[in-house]
Specification:
By secondary structure, this protein is an alpha/beta fold. The chain has two domains: about 5-225 and about 310-320, Aminopeptidase (3-Layer(aba) Sandwich), CATH 3.40.630.10; about 230-300, N-terminal domain of TfIIb (Single Sheet). Helices cover about 25% and strands about 20% of the residues. The chain has seven helices and twelve strands. It has helices at about 35-45, 65-70, 85-90, 95-110, 140-155, 195-215, 310-320; strands spanning about 25-30, 60-65, 120-125, 130-135, 160, 175-185, 225-235, 245, 265, 275, 285, 300-310.
C-alpha cells in the first residue's frame, strides 16, 4: 500500500486524512533541502506508483524539510538531521524552524503520533564517494537486524555511527527502528540518474526484506560486517580558524580504503603534506563531504567489525513488524 504522495508532500497537517493499519514504514526524503534525488524519486513514484514495488508493505512517503527543499538549501535555521535531540524537542522556547518541523513529524508519524509508523527509512545523498551505504545510529537490535538483512541481499556496507557526543539528534533515532540510505557521489542540488536508480533499488530491498520478515520467510545471516565510527578528522587550520590545507588528491575518492601509516591526508598550498600517523589501518568515510565543512569534519574514521546476529536481535525486528 502506498499513501498518496501528494497528500503529504508538503505540510504534515494533511496527514490526519490518512487511515493506516498494520506495519507502516515512514519513507523520508529531503531531510536536507539540497539533496534532491530522493525527493525527485518520491515525486515520480507518486505519478507512477508501479515505479517501486512495495511488496505489500505500508509506506508513508514524506518530505522532511519541504521549505528548505523549495529553496534548494540544506536547512533554514539549523540542520533538521541534528534537531531530534530530546532537549530540543522538549524545549518550548526553541523556535528554529527545523526543530518545529522535527516536533511536527513526530506528532504525526512518531511512535506515539496520530498516525504512527514503526520503522523509518531516511534517504540521503552525499558528495563523497561512498557508493550505496546503510547508516545505522547506535546499536539497537532491530536496526542492526534490518541492516544485516539488507546487507545480505545487496552487499551494502554498513556505517555504524555511535558514541560521538558532537553528533547527536538524528531523525531515525526517534523511531523504534530506522536507518539511513546514503548514496554518492553527487553534487548538492544535482539530479543524477544513477543516484536515483541506486536509491530506488535500496528502497525496494528494504521493503522486500520487511515483507519477508512479516511473512516469516526472512533468512538471517549468521553474521554481518559493520564499519564502526572511531571519530572524525578536520582540516589543518590557521590561527584564524580558516583551513590551512585541503584534502590530498591521493585520498580524494578513496572512501572505504584503509589508511596506511604515512599515507597523505592533507596538502598545503606550498606543497607540504600532512600524513597519517596513526595505527591499525582505519577506514575513512565521507571524505571531503561538502555538507560537513560547517561541522569541521574532513572525514570520519572507522574500523571493520564482524558482528554475530543473535536471535534476540531478530526477535526485536519481528516484534516491531508484527505489531
Amino acid at each position: 500500500m502506498v499513501v498518496p504522495f501528494a497528500a503529504i508532500f508538503g505540510q504534515a497537517e494533511d496527514c490526519d486524512r490518512i487511515l493506516m493499519s498494520g506495519l507502516q514504514v515512514l519513507l523520508v526524503a529531503g531531510t536536507h533541502g539540497n539533496e534532491i534525488n530522493g525527493p525527485w524519486l518520491l515525486d515520480q513514484w507518486s505519478q507512477t506508483p508501479e515505479l517501486i514495488n512495495t511488496h505489500g508493505v505500508g509506506v508513508v512517503p514524506v518530505i522532511g524539510n519541504p521549505e528548505a527543499l523549495a529553496l534548494g538549501q540544506r536547512y533554514l535555521d539549523c540542520d533538521l538531521n541534528r534537531s531530534f535531540r530530546l532537549d530540543l524537542l522538549r524545549s518550548p522556547s526553541i523556535l528554529d524552524r527545523e526543530v518545529v518541523r522535527a516536533k511536527q513529524l513526530l506528532s504525526f508519524f512518531g511512535p506515539e503520533g496520530s498516525t504512527p509508523c514503526q520503522i523509518v527509512i531516511d534517504l540521503h545523498s552525499t558528495t563523497a564517494a561512498m557508493g550505496s551505504t546503510l547508516v545505522v545510529y547506535g546499536r539497537r537490535p532491530a536496526d542492526l537486524a534490518l541492516a544485516a538483512l539488507i546487507q545480505a541481499r545487496l552487499g551494502l556496507p554498513i556505517y555504524l555511527h555511535d558514541g560521538d557526543a558532537d553528533q547527536q539528534g538524528f531523525l531515525v533515532e526517534r523511531w523504534p527502528c530506522g536507518l539511513v540510505i546514503e548514496i554518492g557521489p553527487v553534487p548538492q542540488g544535482l539530479l543524477k540518474a544513477c543516484i536515483i536508480e541506486q536509491t530506488r533499488l535500496a528502497v525496494q530491498a528494504c521493503l522486500k526484506v520487511l515483507s519477508s520478515v512479516s511473512s516469516g520467510l526472512a533468512t538471517y545471516p549468521d553474521q554481518f560486517v559493520v564499519h564502526s565510527h572511531l571519530g572524525s578528522l578536520d582540516l589543518p587550520r590557521n590561527t584564524l580558524g580558516h583551513p590551512a590545507a585541503c584534502v590530498h588528491p591521493y585520498l580524494q575518492g578513496r572512501d572505504w580504503q584503509p589508511l596506511q601509516v604515512g599515507a597523505p591526508l592533507f596538502l598545503r598550498p606550498d606543497g607540504e603534506v600532512f600524513r597519517f600517523e596513526g595505527r591499525d589501518s582505519p577506514i575513512p568515510v565521507f571524505i571531503n563531504e561538502a555538507a560537513y565543512v560547517e561541522k569541521q569534519i574532513a572525514m570520519s574514521l572507522t574500523y571493520r567489525e564482524v558482528c554475530p546476529l543473535p536471535e534476540q536481535w531478530q526477535g526485536a525486528l519481528q516484534q516491531l513488524v508484527d505489531c
